[in-house]
User: What shape does this take?
Amino acid sequence: MKLSQPTEKKFHQVASSDTKQEQKRRIRKRIATPKAAERAFKKAKSKKESISEQAIQDQIKNTLAKLSGGKTQDSRSKHRKEKRSAIAETQEKVLLRVKEESKVLKVTEFSSANDLASLMGVSVSEVISTCMSLGMATSINQRLDAEAITIIADELGYQVNFTDVQAETVEEAEQDRPEDLVVRAPIVTIMGHVDHGKTSLLDYIRKTQITKEEAGGITQHIGAYDVITESGKRVAFLDTPGHEAFTAMRARGAKITDIVIVVVAADDRVMPQTQEAIKHAQLAGVPIVVAINKTDKAGANPEKIKEELAGINILVEDWGGKYQCQAISAKTGQGIPDLLDKVLLEAELLSLQANPNKSAQGTILEASLTQGKGYVATLMVQSGMLKLGDIVLAGACYGKVRAMTDHLSRSVKQAIPATPVQILGLNGAPQAGDTFRVMSSDKEAREAASYKHQIMREQSLRTKKHITLDEIGRRLAIGNFKELNILLKGDVDGSVEALADALLKLSTEEIRINIIHKSVGAITESDVLLAAAADAIVIGFQVRPSTGIRKLAEKEGIDIRLYSIIYDAINHVKDAMQGMASPTVEERITGSATVREIFKISKVGTVAGCYVADGYLQQTQQIRLIRDSIVVYTGRIYQIKQ
Assistant: This one.
């Protein structure tokens, strides 16, 4: 009989073959008592509390580490994120600024509609349609004034920034390397009141006599000279006029100079033109050296001059100030070497340097028209080297340097910095004070000059004043309003500019001065015809008309007044305006002769063989020697022989 024991054993064997993990699971599953559950709950709770405290401690540690500069993994990632956001913000600001700048137009006044459209990146038809909607009839090439440009740009969402035509065409200055710079000579300007001895001082330094050649014994041009001192140092001198009418010339001299010598006469006082010269020098920020001249004369009082200078805040070194002062005599030469030493000391303190190995740049001092030579320009090279054959752009004029001479009329092939020279080859007379620079090609110079000329012509046309109803009413109210039209011709641009400014200042409520035309050169037939059309008088300064021009003027009834001294011209016009038109001295031409041959005789001098072309000549008469319509000598006839 079989029992059931093997089955029980088999079941027991199956149970004993279970893995230890299953045994553990069975044990955990069997814990189900209330006490065990309570113990497990308390254990889990205590574990949760300890974890949360640990997290708090870790958070505190992270915060302290961040404050102390340490970097954890979280802080490094956060720092990278902040850096990326900062870079993105900077790029956004740059794009915004570029976008804002693209909405600002940099234009010159009197730009054409076509130029305006290209700057804004729109079609010309859009600009013209905008003008039509604003009630302005405009063509493609019509030049617009500042007000019209501003309105059109505002309509199209742009802002306008007007730039000067001079600044628009001047290239950025080349940056000079320190190793390319060399020591250059100082540019010294002599300034002061009229007849205080400025040119006499320069005459002594140069061992010449310029004053005797100047009409009236006063300087009426800017003279530029290159001088080698006794110590072997080179100095460039500028001599400026002292008359009140030459304010622009003095300002021009102060702008391009390194040192200013202010000359004051010891037997006079500090005059208004002396104070003006000092102001020009102070505005230009250049050192001032005071020269008290005429100390050898009776009644000279240098201490009084120093006291008056102190009254305008110019304290000399003798009085505890910073300005060097030297008592001199331009006639005897007393104190002049010491004055030059003080000038060279100031130059050493300035450490003047320039790069001679680049294209030349500088300033136009004077410009004139000479028959047989064309336009002659006197200029000061301030940086670079000017050479024969260079293409020069000066203001609205350009040309190739065909000839170059120094202040002694000697031909030179090149000019280093701080050297005054005269050049031939320009196609016109640039304005005194214009900057010049050497261009790379003739085409580039021609385009720049043409652009400047168009702008200047447009400005002159737009600034012409026409009569209005209000003006008619004002003239009717005054009752005796008159207008004096003047056509002005001179030998050099600086004198023409100074005389025109002085004459315009004479205008009153009853009489207005109107300069209808001013230029350099001789009085021509077109000048007389223009004066006849405008009912004007012709004033010639240091120029004389030919016999044919005189006859044409008499036929047309044109009054030609000729002057050699600037204050004579100003005073005569002023007297004419006040009803005192009859001058005390009247010049009458009795005849003219042509020099055909020159004979040089020992112990006698130079004899001119002349042919009398018109009128008659007498031995007691005054004569003027005229070459190329420019007065070169005024004197007397010593002897006449047939």
Remarks:
- DSSP finds 19 helices and 26 strands in the chain.
- The two ends are 192 Å apart (CA to CA).
- The CA atoms of residues 105 and 151 lie 13 Å apart.
- The longest helix spans residues 34-68.
